[in-house]
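FYI - complex with fructose -6-phosphate, inputs then prediction.
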Amino acid sequence: MEEYYLGWLNQLEDGLKHWSDWSISGVFRGIIVAGMGGSGIVGDYLSALSLVNGGLPVITVKHYMVPGFVGSSDLAVVISYSGNTLETRLFYESVRKRGAAVVVVSSDGLLEEYARRDNVLFLPVVKGIAPRTALPHMLYRILGLLDSSGISIVSRDKAKRAYDFLTGVMEEATDKAYDIASFIHENKGLLILATHSPLEPLAWRVKNEFNENSKIPVKVEAAPEWMHNDIVGWEKPYENKYTAILVSDPSDRVGSRLVDYMEKIYKENSIPTYRLLLKGETLLEKLLYGSLVFGLASVRLARIRGLDPLKTTSIVEYKKVVDSIFK
Ligand code: F6R
């Protein structure tokens, strides 16, 4: 599975090569991105990038219900790597009835069929890998589409710079990943992933990676909201074992200080801590760097534990019964 992560440069390269291959016309009020798990996280990344870079509002939906306000002036991006996820397919059917402009991003499956049947714009992504490892490809497909449609969140130039940046840190990211995996395995306990705004999507992504690849539960804590609830929970926690990974952006002075504050409280609770300082100039570069380091770390941790990082048995089991649950 490591090779899927090490293949991210190829995914970005292909994203850049086909950056302007698709576009959609129209004046949009907002963008709704629908998807689950490794596909849905792309919506969170787009949302954070738009927030910081100043694009259209991006709302991510990780279920099957279309928000009440969505209508014909919105763009709906429906992402499912497999193309078969029921929640996402239900969203697709409902959002079309609302009259929104729709784009499907997928590698295969029923959603590809629906898109072709309904004459809906279809963006193909690399086939035959685990959905979560296709993150850069799905992200660049959509960023390219938006940029070519005059509603840019990230320009091609910045996307190219992010590719160059990632090329230069591949080796260092692998070393960091090994360090992090050993740290978690040595300390064990419930893993806490702590960060500061606007990096919440990265923390959710990292949580998902340790869930799916390493098969452990993870708790996400993000400042400054942390200072208004979680912090009180650390006054009298039950006697459980915890391990904390803290992620901060060194160019964000306030964010870094907030994470220092969190670290102090964790240490007072005798929680072992590891701090990762994100590399990169832009938010896109930081998100890609963090995703790569922790993706590799989660695979490494699975290997140390003697587990297959690729297998997600419980998701497969859920997908076998999901139709009967939704019927
Ligand atoms: C598996 C993974 C999952 C899937 C999720 C939705 O690698 O990452 O979180 O992404 O079960 O499936 P897709 O992405 O096919 O719609």
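Residues 156-187 form the longest helix (32 residues). The mean pLDDT is 97.
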